[in-house]
Amino acid sequence: MNNKKYVIIEASDVSTVNFDEVLQTSVDTLLYNRAGDQCVVKYEGNKPRCLYGKDALDYTAICEVLSGEAWSEPKNEEE
Q1: Cα dihedral across residues 66, 72, 78, 79: positive or negative
Q2: Where are the alpha helices (DSSP H) in 1-79?
Q3: Per residue of the chain (79 residues), what is the pLDDT tens digit?
Q4: Residue 9 φ then ψ, to 5°
Q5: Any bridge partners for residue 43, and if so which?
Q6: What is the phi-psi region of residue 17: left when phi exceeds 0, alpha when psi lies from -120 to 50, beta otherwise?
Q7: Domain ranges of the chain
Q8: Is the distance from CB of 48 to CB of 56 less than 8 angstroms?
Q9: Contact between 14 and 39 (Cβ < 8 Å)
């Protein structure tokens, strides 16, 4: 069972992330959307203070978001 939680934040808020409290180790390990203006931060357990006020998603919900056009490359219709 996946106990991780996922939060989408604005890229401009990355400087507020405490990488000691989340599962990523640095800015370089964050997953950004195609536009580069949002990214995903994941954590386990209690929500880190740096993510207070932001909605947390479970694994199923984040997979749905990440499969959308804003996050994934469009499928080639010829394939």
Answers
A1: negative
A2: 59-66
A3: 578 999 999 999 999 999 999 999 999 999 999 999 999 999 999 999 999 999 999 999 999 999 999 998 776 655 4
A4: -125, 160
A5: 5
A6: beta
A7: 5-66
A8: no
A9: yes
Residues in the chain: 79
Q: How far apart are CA 57 and CA 2, in angstroms?
A: 12
The rounded Cα 51 to chain-centroid distance in angstroms is 11
Q: Which two structure tokens, joined as six digits, stand for 77?
A: 């219709």
pLDDT value of residue 1: 59
Q: For residue 46, which of 21, 10, 16, 20 has the smallest C-alpha distance?
A: 21
pLDDT at 73: 77
Q: How far apart are CA 37 and CA 52, in angstroms?
A: 19
Residue with tokens 């006020």: 53
